[in-house]
Design goal:
The complex is a heterodimer.
Chain A: E1 13-24, E2 27-38, E3 42-46, H1 53-60, E4 70-78, E5 81-82, H2 90-96, E6 97-100, H3 111-121, H4 128-138, H5 142-145, H6 158-171, E7 176-180, H7 188-201, E8 206-210, H8 214-220, E9 223-231, E10 237-246, H9 247-252, H10 257-263
Parallel strand pairs in A: 2-10, 3-8, 3-9, 6-7, 7-8
Antiparallel strand pairs in A: 1-2, 1-4, 4-5, 9-10
Helix pairs in contact in A: 3-4, 3-6, 4-6, 6-7
Chain B: H1 23-59, H2 65-69, H3 82-113, H4 118-131, H5 135-149, H6 151-154, H7 159-183, H8 187-195, H9 200-229, H10 232-237, H11 257-265, H12 270-304
Helix pairs in contact in B: 1-12, 3-7, 3-9, 3-11, 4-7, 5-7, 7-9, 8-9, 9-12, 11-12
The chains are: A alpha/beta, B mainly alpha.
């Protein structure tokens, strides 16, 4: 297994978020988030619907740029560089910070092409067949699909599709994997396979996962951030960070009453 | 149909006192609507079949090689459809070659690249309005712009000027069809492409367009079908009804099938009416070939997607 030399930097901080707020136009959607996401660990964002956990996640690869009127105030740094600085190229950033979405979204092309696309557009110079096999092996999917690489990525089961999406994301050798509720559309067995996979992948990647499922957060993550939402006067919802701590503390010994209520299932 | 018994399950259902299912009435309404929609379907088919049979009976005996390969003549028996047929094929090619890339390009820009601002909103409203402008107006525009102003390029009242005019006419339809087809492609595909570090064009080119292409093609073919049936703008541009030579791209006059048919129908002699019927058959065959090509292309693109 080869490692990307730039990721072999010990366990520092991947994302440094300080007093960051997120706006849609003039609407404050998420306020005052401060977290430090460690490298090569799994960090979970939990909280009720509308609390802004996915929104913050999408700041990390600047996928929010695609939404007109959306902007960020405060600091979001990746490896010490401000993500929203003018010198940062969002397209190159997204190569380094991969993403897996809530609903499996393979391209309606062959399994092979699903993996090869990202590599090709990013100018991959190596052997494509070898890359496809290596990526599928890392995503624990190779044995299941090695005889049908030319078949459509949509022809396999939902759980396999999600692992194909993970394989697609890691094929371009990112440093970070953002996972936006990656198991919410999967059955329990597929969910378990993805969680096992995450444990293997964190050897090499920094993982940030958004999840509705608190058991999942407690099973897979090292750090947990709990977000909550409050209703605004105009009927919208405004998210904010309640507490960020090692996962054990969040689940066993939270400092905030709201966290205690949420992780013990009293709301959310 | 068997008669159902609403009390088949139990006689003493407490909920029955609070609901009045009125099954008979609901089923009756169901039937009435089924019949109404059936009648609507059949009405269209009957009218179409009647027209087809009428035209085929009148025109089929006249349709032969001589008719297809002859130039117009003062005697109906020697007259043929060659010049208008070539003119229509010319128009088809010019219109498609001009309208397809511009229309699809504009649709892609508006749907995939532009941001929602005052300028694009004004554009959208105008495109919607343009689709509803009567074709004669486009004819006048074509006359002023392509025939007069760009006379050095188009050669005046030529098939080129007419093709450009028809291209303008169907441009809004192609733009709207393209946008609808693009909008039907789920956003998750765009996000997937962008999240892998693809640029917007790479994402559109590799993933969004292939999905939307069958829809775009269907819209384009429908628009082209409309274009080759148009008469009014061609009259304004100056299509002729007596063209005893093969029309060339940008020299000399031209004719087109609808123009020739219109002219023949207006003559007093019955023999010319037969010619018109045969011309209509030729026009319909051209249309059928076009639609068949579109379906073939669409199926090939869908099969090619794996």
């Amino acid at each position: 297994m080869q490692t990307n030399p730039s990721t072999a930097v010990g366990t520092g901080t991947a994302f440094h978020v300080d007093q960051a707020s997120y706006y849609y136009g003039s609407f404050l959607a998420v306020s005052n988030v401060s977290v430090d996401v460690p490298e090569r660990k799994i960090t979970a964002f939990i909280g009720p619907s509308g609390c802004g956990k996915s929104t913050v996640l999408r700041c990390f690869n600047r996928l929010n740029d695609l939404i007109p009127g959306a902007h960020v105030k405060g600091t979001i740094q990746y490896r010490g560089v401000d993500l929203y600085d003018k010198s940062v190229d969002a397209t190159e950033l997204r190569r380094r910070i991969g993403m897996v979405f809530q609903k499996p979204n393979p391209f309606p092309k062959s399994i092979y092409e699903n993996i090869a696309f990202g590599a090709r557009i990013n100018g991959y110079k190596g052997d494509m067949d070898e890359l496809v096999e290596r990526s599928l092996r890392k995503a624990a999917l190779w044995e299941e699909v090695k005889d049908k690489l030319r078949e459509s990525g949509l022809s396999i089961s939902g759980g396999q599709q999600q692992r194909l999406c993970i394989a697609r994301a890691i094929a371009i050798e990112p440093e970070v994997l953002l996972m936006d509720e990656p198991c919410s559309a999967l059955d329990p067995i597929s969910t378990l396979r993805v969680e096992d996979l995450m444990h293997e992948l964190k050897e090499q990647f920094t993982i940030v996962i958004v999840t509705h499922n608190m058991q999942q957060a407690s099973r897979v993550s090292d750090m947990t951030a709990f977000f909550n939402a409050q209703a605004t006067e105009k009927g919208g919802k405004q998210g904010y960070l309640v507490e960020y701590a090692p996962t054990q503390n969040i689940f066993n010994n939270p400092t905030q009453q709201a966290t205690q209520d949420y992780v013990s299932g009293r709301f959310g | 149909m068997t008669v159902t018994d609403p009390n088949a399950f139990s006689q003493d259902d407490l909920a029955k006192q609070r609901f009045n299912p009125n099954l008979a009435g609901r089923y009756r309404l169901d039937n009435i609507f089924r019949i109404a929609s059936w009648v609507a379907t059949i009405a269209g088919l009957v009218v179409l079949a009647f027209l087809l049979i009428d035209v085929l009976v009148d025109g089929l005996p006249r349709l032969n090689w001589q008719f297809l390969t002859s130039f117009p003549s003062r005697s109906a028996e020697r007259a043929g459809i060659l010049a208008p047929l070539v003119g229509t094929v010319w128009l088809l090619f010019i219109t498609a070659l001009v309208a397809f890339p511009i229309g699809v390009g504009a649709g892609i820009f508006l749907e995939e690249f532009s941001t929602d601002n005052l300028f694009t909103r004004i554009l959208e409203i105008n495109i919607g309005n343009l689709a509803a402008v009567p074709s004669i107006i486009y004819g006048l525009l074509g006359l002023a712009v392509f025939v007069r102003v760009f006379v050095d390029i188009t050669g005046g009242r030529t098939v080129f000027a007419a093709g450009l005019t028809l291209a303008l006419l169907i441009l809004p339809v192609i733009i709207v069809a393209t946008r609808e087809a693009l909008r039907a492609v789920p956003d998750s595909l765009r996000l997937a492409g962008m999240a892998l570090g693809a640029t917007r064009w790479q994402t559109v080119r590799e993933h969004v367009l292939p999905q939307a292409f069958p829809g775009i093609l269907t819209g384009t073919i429908l628009a082209l079908s409309r274009a080759i049936g148009e008469t009014a703008p061609l009259i304004v541009i100056g299509a002729q009804t007596f063209v005893p030579y093969i029309p060339s791209f940008r020299e000399g006059g031209f004719s087109a099938l609808p123009i020739q048919i219109f002219n023949w129908v207006g003559r007093p002699q019955a023999e010319f009416h037969t010619n018109a019927a045969a011309g209509i058959i030729v026009l319909m065959i051209v249309l059928l070939i076009m639609n068949a090509t579109a379906i073939y292309l669409r199926n090939r693109f869908q099969a090619g997607k794996v």
